[in-house]
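thread: overnight batch results

M.L. [08:02]
morning all. the overnight job finished for the chain we discussed friday. pasting input first so we're all looking at the same thing
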Amino acid sequence: MADLPYEQIRSALAAQPLFEAKSWRLAPAAWPLTAEQKAELETIGRACLEFHQSLETLYLRSVAGRNLLRNKALIAPWVAEYLDRGKPDDLIRYARSPQNRGAFPPVLRPDLLLTDTGFVMTELDSVPGGIGLTAFLNRLYEPTGSVLGAGDLMLRHFHAGLAALTPTLTNPLIALVVSDEAATYRPEMEWLAHQLQIQGKRVFCLEPEKVFPLGSGLFFDSGGAPEKIDVIYRFFELFDLANIRTAKYFFEAWEAGEVAISPPIRPFQEEKLSFALFHHHLLTDYWLESLGAKTVKLLSQLIPSSWAMDPAPLPPGAVLDGPKVGGRSLTDWRQLAGASQKERDLIIKISGFHETAWGARSVVLGSDCSREEWQAAVDRAVELAPVNLHLLQTYRKPQRIKHRLYREEGGVATVVEADGRLRLCPYYFVIGGQAQLSGALATFCPPDKKIIHGMVDAALLPCVIV
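M.L. [08:03]
and the structure it wrote out:
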């Protein structure tokens, strides 16, 4: 596998910034994956889509008060109550609408940590950033080896998944609508739209305010006559709707059948709480029946133990299904505050529908913070529970590994062998009911970083099959 020269990488990124006001470390080579790891990622993609499909069935049966199992009684109205908690009535109505039945996110991106025992999935993002960035890096590093996603596979699959939403149109007009809250990612979406335009596709990156109604449809001004939008790719979280002045027009056009919106307006698909539902002891039989033993085994290995921090009062003698503190079961989530540092190998994060629910903003790792900070995180989770539930998750430490990086000193770049930890984000595009592995972004962080995400001292890399 050949090295990519430092100046070539720096020049390419300078000519086409992919993030607003962000930078990262550069590397001469992409992240290596074995053929076995690629096959494992393909299996994980299928399991992620099956999980979403089963989650939809779970939610809708819970809403309707229907039995969850074929030959055994299991009614769980509390599932819908958890997933709908704190959501506006309109969003709940869209989530349950028959018009949305069978609608899933077109792009699935799990966050996978590489640990000593294999991959661990900490999140499953259905509105992921990094699509344009990964496609750009795939193209940049393609001459150096067998890049995962070579031949602009991410571009082609991204468009194919969205175009399939309007099967009667040969070249639908697709608007990638990026909110101000998500403006950091606008440059990569603009690059993505431009590359697809070069291929003859009608794809435009728009600010929400550029979209306006005419009749029952949605339009934008491309510099001439208004053009009708067929598909909106919604690159903003649902909590952000209140800040988008034109959002009401999106929904009116969608309800009129004039535009497809993807990811669908279904907040239950964007809740981290779904991992707690997967591990919930009352739902074990449902997941086995819905997913099958093989997929349940895989997801059980991937998803760390997770619990919903619901502070509802317990009857005398009852204990919480959760970790122990001082060898004792919890009867109140506030008792987590008394956990020792060793017992605090736990993460607290908000489940969703909140401005801190993305970008690791709400994540608190108990073993990496002071007792006072941990106490504050526990108190916040309990206080916000009536509107925003938090997820408690066991922390699985990423493996310490090496990769070569560039180091620039005095205007000269040299290659150094660096220690670090890895987060791998494979991108699956849902096409024809199948999750297609189309690329993967590796984030290689310094070993002292306990929570891995894009940062100035991390390296962002595509992947190659070796």
